[in-house]
Amino acid sequence: MKPIVGEWYRGVTNELFEVVAIDDGDETIEIQFFDGTVTEMDFESWNEHMLDQMLDAADAPEDWSGAVDVEAEDLERHFEDSVRAGWSVGHDRSMRR
Questions:
Q1: H-run or E-run covering 48
Q2: In terms of domains, do 55 and 85 share one?
Q3: Which of 8, 11, 4 is nearest to 62 (CA)?
Q4: Nearest CA among 71, 31, 79 for reference residue 55
Q5: d(CA 42, CA 47)
Q6: Which of 45, 54, 69, 87 has a C-alpha 20 to 30 A away from that of 4?
Q7: Is residue 38 within 8 Å of residue 31, measured between CB atoms?
Q8: Alpha carbons 10 and 19: distance in angstroms, whole number
Q9: Surface-to-core class of residue 7, CB atoms within 10 Å of its CB (0-12 exposed, 13-18 middle, 19+ buried)
Q10: Looking at residue 59, what DSSP letter applies?
Q11: Among candidates 53, 3, 65, which has minimal Cα distance to 28?
């Protein structure tokens, strides 16, 4: 199985990771674990892991907040405030007409 950028895999330790870049010149694969940690693996290591069945294709996680370096409550507050402000102003104006 060849690595594909944007695809998720599961290692032997059951950790999810995504292939985020492939450098054919350097023969390296950049991977990002669910917790946000980024590391490189060379083509030879990838192939050895595949032969030893230490890697498997996986579904993307449902909760993407693991790789985001922001608290979930900060994201929610930011988006909720801007959405509510925009809708409530438009709604209030249309009701006054």
A1: helix 43-51
A2: no
A3: 8
A4: 31
A5: 9
A6: 69
A7: yes
A8: 11
A9: middle
A10: P
A11: 3
pTM above 0.85, yes or no: no
For residue 26, give the DSSP letter: T
pLDDT per residue, tens digit, the chain (97 aa), is: 899 999 999 988 889 999 999 999 999 999 999 888 999 999 999 999 988 889 999 998 887 655 555 454 554 544 444 444 444 445 455 455 4
Chain position carrying tokens 């590391």: 39
Q: How many CB atoms lie within 10 A of CB 91?
A: 10
CA distance 79 to 86: 11
Contact partners, residue 77, CB within 8 Å, separation at least 6: none
CATH code for position 50 = 2.30.30.140
